[in-house]
Each structure stands twice: as structure tokens, then as C-alpha cells.
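Ticket #4471: structure output looks truncated?

Reporter: J.K.
Steps to reproduce: submitted the chain below (289 residues) through the standard prediction queue, then opened the result file.
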Amino acid sequence: MTATLNACPAPAKLNLFLHVTGRRPDGYHLLQSAFQLIDRADSLDFAVRDDDQIVRANEVPGVPAESDLVVRAARLLREAAGKADLGASITVNKVLPMGGGLGGGSSDAATTLMALNHLWQTGFSRRKLMEIGLKLGADVPFFLFGRNAFAEGVGEALSPLETADYWYVVIEPGVSVPTPIIFSSPQLTRDTKAVRITDFPDATKQIASSFGKNDLEMVATRHFPEIAEAIQWLSRFGNARMTGSGACVFCAFEHEQQADEALKQLPSRWIGWKAKAMQEHPLAHLLQS
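Returned output as attached by the reporter:
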């Protein structure tokens, strides 16, 4: 009987704030951020194959299988295990927009590592999976961390973070933002003063509502005025800001009804939705400490 795991969630994340505090000699940017998991997610299906093929079983528009992070993640896991005969078929059901700053591709890769580590019985610890994930992108270790986090370094130095059980309204402004454009911009400030997680007297509410800013937002809104328009519109309901390097923008609400009322007024030119804050990754039970 073929070993399978179906409907494995790959949840989105929001950057409640994102500060660029410097730059390393190798060009990587030093960041500080608060990562918040939300219950909007892609969904992936996995089946172990009896040959050595790693196959993405469906088409994902704009993403060739060979360059897809889920295929690359599976191959890296197999390589780390030293078992060339491991195979898998992976179906990716996309919900999260690409180029949205929600971490969709990174989350898909992390879910792949978690699921195949379980199905292939490779037995790697959470820390080892995070090491493998970092080779795929700076956001991947967060999703493998398994819970909300305060992030430093290039995004890989993570500390557990308690966050408020807010509802979030997220707007997709209709543009896809290539991250390199933002980080390579001469307009990007790279000298925001570093903070400490202990600087937050009431981290659960302050981070989600009013703390800090997104240093990438100023650059992204200059390149993509659609983002600026979405932020301006959503700001009528609270402290709206961009997540990641864009393009999605969000605002926190204490009550679901408030989020629903905001969405009723959303202009038809945008896609918008609500999501609930999560404290833990839904597949965290698969992770070994």
C-alpha cells in the first residue's frame, strides 16, 4: 500500500513588522521581523513512489517543475538522507498568490520537508530540517520552526513569540513583486536601529497593531502604486501595512465581525480575504525536536 499524506497545509505568514538593520559583506541584508502564521494556506498531497523519481503531479502556472521549491526541497532531503532510491509524487494546490509577500513558496517547501521526512522515515530533527530549508530561502526555516517567531539575522535566527489572536484582512493589489527589485534598490534604507524582543511591554498587541514599520514598503510603493493605493484604503480601518517585500497588505482586527465589515466595503478591483492568527503550524506534530 502506497504511503500518502493528503491535504497537508502550507500556511501563509505575515511580517507584522520588517526592519532592515544592516548588510553583511556577502550582500545579504540583516533583518528583524515578527512572523505571524495565519490560517490561509496552500494544500499539498504526497505519495511515496517505488522508483527514484521526484515528480510534481500537476501544473502550477508560472512555475516550472524543475525550479519549484517543493521539488528542490524533496531532492535536498533525499540528498541529506543519502538514499538515492527515495521517490515521491507531489501535488501542489495553490491558494496563496505568488509575489505576495505571504511566503507561499517557502511554506510549500517547508511542508514538503515535514511531510517527506515523515513518509520517508528519514528521521531528521527540526533543527536539521531548518538547515536544509535555509538552502532554499531565508523564510523556509521559519515555517519549519513551527510557531510564531521573532526573527533576526537574514531571517534564520528565530525566537518563540506569543502573538494576539487577531483576525486579519489581507488585500491582494493585483501585482506580483520580484523580491530582488526591492532589496537591490538604492532607495532602500538599511540602518534601522535594532530592537530587542524584550523592548515590547505588551508584545501580543503592540506588534500586531502599531509597532515598527516595513522598511521595504517605501520602495515597493514607488515601484507599484497599486500597493500604495491598497494601503491607503485599508488604513481607514487601522494600521495597514505591507507584508514581506509585497505585494499583499494587511490590517489587524480584534473581532471577526470587524474584518467582515471591512471586506464588505472592499473595492471590486482587488481580491481581499480574512484570516485568523495561528500560534502553531498545523503540521508541527510531525516535527521532531
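Triage note (M.O.): checked the attachment and the full C-alpha cell line is present. Strands lie at 4-23, 29-49, 54-56, 87-93, 149-152, 157-160, 167-172, 241-242, 249-253, 271-278.
Status: closed, working as intended.
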